[in-house]
Amino acid sequence: MNGIARTPEPPYYAVIFTSERTDGDQGYAEMAEEMEKLAYSQPGFLGVESAREGLGITVSYWESLEAIKNWKQNERHLIAQQQGKSDWYLEYKTRICKVERDYGFEKNAEPFHK
Amino acid sequence: MNGIARTPEPPYYAVIFTSERTDGDQGYAEMAEEMEKLAYSQPGFLGVESAREGLGITVSYWESLEAIKNWKQNERHLIAQQQGKSDWYLEYKTRICKVERDYGFEKNAEPFHK
């Protein structure tokens, strides 16, 4: 499991992938692990956040739209996408976004006086 | 639990809220339910998707940056945000995004011939 992605200052890009799975694994867990490792080695990859609770949400972060396009066309990733449609997903939605602004909070990072 | 949000054609806006919780509930579940109901009644609200698996990811969708700003300043929501910092979250990150493009897949909606 990943934590919160350590992304740079905006602007950068996000791909929000929301999905509902079919029943059973059917090779999903293994491929998901492979895809995550592969994503980390892609040019322009900035990080990924993922959670599933019935609904699955995976948000990956990228330097540019070109980096997103290259990842979508990666040979192994194309195979995963095809198997996603045939075996793993009942439904999904992919949203390509430009992150315009961000802010955060860390409990232990708060100064006592500011 | 929600499914995949039924958002309109882009462009629209997304707020990606990624968080790590403190231990224990401390009123969190009740407030989360109240905030979700309240969000649905806000002008410009388009939908929300949420999952927690250790890491929590909530993505809310909005018609405009103004709608996002109004929600952030909602009186009850301000109280929830404050309690979030004091009680519920070890860490969070909020990212304001413009959704530029989206596409989806539905297993049962696929035509046999196309």
Structure keywords:
homodimer; alpha+beta; Alpha-Beta Plaits; 114 residues; 4-stranded antiparallel β-sheet
Structure description:
2 copies of one chain form a homodimer. By secondary structure, the first copy, chain A, is of the alpha+beta class. Chain A has a domain at 31-99: Alpha-Beta Plaits (2-Layer Sandwich). Chain A has 3 helices and 4 strands; from the N terminus they run βαββααβ. Chain A has helices at residues 28-40, 65-72, 75-88; strands at residues 12-21, 45-53, 55-62, 89-106. Chain A has a 4-stranded antiparallel β-sheet with strand order 2-3-1-4. In chain A, a hairpin with a 1-residue loop joins strand 2 (45-53) and strand 3 (55-62). The N and C termini of chain A lie far apart (33 Å). At the A-B interface, strand 1, strand 2, strand 3 and strand 4 of A face strand 1, strand 2, strand 3 and strand 4 of B.
- Quaternary state of this entry equals homodimer
Outline of chain A: globular
CATH topology of the domain at 31-99 in chain A: Alpha-Beta Plaits
Number of helices in the DSSP assignment of chain A: 3
- Mean model confidence by pLDDT of chain A: 94
Protein topology:
Two copies of one chain form a homodimer.
Chain A lengths: L11 E10 L6 H13 L4 E9 L1 E8 L2 H8 L2 H14 E18 L8
Q: Nutshell version of this structure?
A:
Chain A has 114 residues and is an alpha+beta fold.
